[in-house]
């Protein structure tokens, strides 16, 4: 069991073990795990000499867990998103770069930083979407809702962690059932959208460790959108904006659901991989 050695030896052994387990970029991940085992930032490894002997008793257990395909973010307990540093746990999905497409789209559609005052994030998870939006719109206050009490506690902690605690509140409930009313300038949501038959084919890191309730979108992956689109009209202020994350190939179906619910399709934006990822709707300017 490797607990002592040079950094190069740690990385060589770690990369070989992770590569054999099918982990992508095994040397990079071994480096991140070694930094975590040493209690330092990854950049601090650059200052370590080639022959310096390191003691990292936690490294073998971390390697074993990663080789079993437990996500790296769960092992180190954190994940970067937008400009934020977020704590993560098995109560929520791990924030992914694909979701940043919603924040990019929001800034493009609402360039004035004074444009938004009341935000809502349904299925908030770590709070990543709400907190990223709040970080860009300093006049806004936001509410995040999640079915999981653990997720709500985590998101509240992330608000404090990123100096946004006085501008965000979190409550536990099923979608908007815990809310007394609407009038939101912005509603964000990354709902479950994986079709149930496809769940077993997801990466081992996802299907084995992330919460199924945050993944399973029903037989065709659209169950949550049917519910959400029916509620957005009542949650949004006149002229309010809703942005929903969607899975690959779902954007047009979700757009149709929103339009049938008296919302105007405003924009469909792609993530960095070119996949249509963010669907934006506009509420009517006046109530019916």
UniProtKB/TrEMBL annotation:
It is an enzyme of class 2 (transferase). It comes from the Bacteria. One of its GO terms (biological process) is methylation. Residues 109-193 form the Methyltransferase small domain. GO terms for molecular function: peptide chain release factor N(5)-glutamine methyltransferase activity. InterPro entries: DNA_methylase_N6_adenine_CS, HemK-like, N5-glutamine_MTase, PrmC_N, RF_methyltr_PrmC, SAM-dependent_MTases_sf, Small_mtfrase_dom. It catalyses: L-glutaminyl-[peptide chain release factor] + S-adenosyl-L-methionine = N(5)-methyl-L-glutaminyl-[peptide chain release factor] + S-adenosyl-L-homocysteine + H(+). PROSITE patterns: N6_MTASE. S-adenosyl-L-methionine binds at residues 123-127, 146, 175, 190. Keywords: Methyltransferase, S-adenosyl-L-methionine, Transferase. Its EC number is 2.1.1.297. Substrate binds at residues 190-193. Residues 11-77 form the Release factor glutamine methyltransferase N-terminal domain. Belongs to the protein N5-glutamine methyltransferase family. PrmC subfamily. Methylates the class 1 translation termination release factors RF1/PrfA and RF2/PrfB on the glutamine residue of the universally conserved GGQ motif. HAMAP family: RF_methyltr_PrmC. This is Release factor glutamine methyltransferase. It comes from Rhizosaccharibacter radicis.
